[in-house]
Amino acid sequence: MNDAQTLAVEVAAVEQVTPLIKHFKLASADGGPLPAFSGGSHIIVVMRGAARMHRNPYSLLSSPRELDHYEIGVRRMEESRGGSHFMHDQVRVGSRLEIAHPVNLFALDKIARKHVLIAGGIGITPFLAQLEDLHDGAVPYELHYSVRSPEHAAFLTRLREREGEKVRMYYDSENQAVDFDGLLSKQPLGTHVYVCGPAGLINKVIATAKSCGWPDSHVHWEQFSAPPVGDAFDVFLSRSRLTVHVPHDQSLMESIEAAGVEVPYLCRGGVCGYCQTRVLELDGELKHYDHFLSDAEKAKGNSIMPCVSRARCKSLVLDL
Amino acid sequence: MLVTGIKSKPVYAPLRADLGGRYHLMLGMGPGADALLRVLAEIQGSALPALQKTRVLLVPDAGAPLMTVPFDHLGLGLVSLFPDTASLLDAFRLVLGESLMGTRLYVAGPESFIGLAMKIALEFDLNKDEIRAEEVGTPARRVYCIHCRATTENVRTNVVSCAGCARWLLVRDHYSRRLAAYMGVMVDAEAPGELPPIKEVYL
After folding, report:
1. Would you say residue A146 lies in a domain?
2. Domain count, chain A
3. ipTM exceeds 0.85, yes or no
4. CA torsion through residues A70, A75, A80, A85, sign
């Protein structure tokens, strides 16, 4: 993916739906229909800020059957590197943005006999689109949605209208929590569980499913990591014959792009594996933050996901 | 004439217990019972309570007195014996309907038996990581006629006369999990009556 393949969109509506979450409606700049997508897809929004460019992944929450616009929800991150603040503070109705085509790394299993959907906070967004594919009633499903407190329950009105009492709400403020063991120990064969939300929630679901004997192929999760900050370092790109400086608050991928070298990507959040890059030389250690490489592969240290991972090193040479 | 190295041909491995599961559902036919006993011993030796949730469905060897099957001494919960594959598979379908996530399926027996069990497991969306199978017994094949869609059972030869349309079929290694059968293709379509030597190969 690179900028030549982006679509131009115009912001058609903006709404503050919770104290932290804004809801954006994006329409094609030329007024035509947007590309088709399936529930669970995300887009990359390209933001040209004054100081630097941001490219953040956001799940599409609108119906896959309505292609006259896309909708996304953006949570304002406290420790933002700028992307979510840009969306919250600079983008308004009429703003022009570029987006990358939708990609689905979090699709519903097509032959599942039942779906259990578990959302935490802003993690509700991919499920809003997936639920549109479940309304024909052919496959039973449950939705469990936990948030800090009632005022943080984004899109709940929309969910209640469409799902009625199928939505099970859990409020931290009232000490309500999903009984994960109770939920996952009594599901019929052929059930798939999907979780999206904070790392703690995802890890809890993965661990509980494992202890209940669920095989990996029935457990699905998505969490886009924001690239963490870290020590600054230099990287040499062997094929481009270029040394690039990576500042402490910019990702490896962003730094390489700023130097004019394209890195292929789909998610920019450590999930898809598309940007996997060979490490040719290293004096120091790699700081892996992705969810794609196995622990064994991370330990080997011969490849890295530049979208989220960094290095603490004297020198690093990448096959780019 | 035959293509070798076809990827759809199933590959089996000796059964090992998957102690990540909470429920262990085992299907056996004839000498496959020995493979299941091995898995049971492994589960029992693991010091997990998993054995409490073990269920065995078995077609014992023809001629073997039903109650001599040596499962009782393991102190198991449920062992059910069936006179034939069809009645076992009917029960299997009912058991799957009541089973929960966390179930592991073990199948030991002839390939045709494994195939029929897998076909039902597929309907319940059991994935590869929930099923283990060991081939024990005859490699005789179920052969699906791609012309009349009849299935010929218990095929031991490289070429067989279709039970449905009597065409001479070449038995390929191309396997369908959905049909639980190998594909049979008319062998003398170009030159009627000209057959290759017929040999017993699946013995």
Report:
1. yes
2. 3
3. no
4. positive
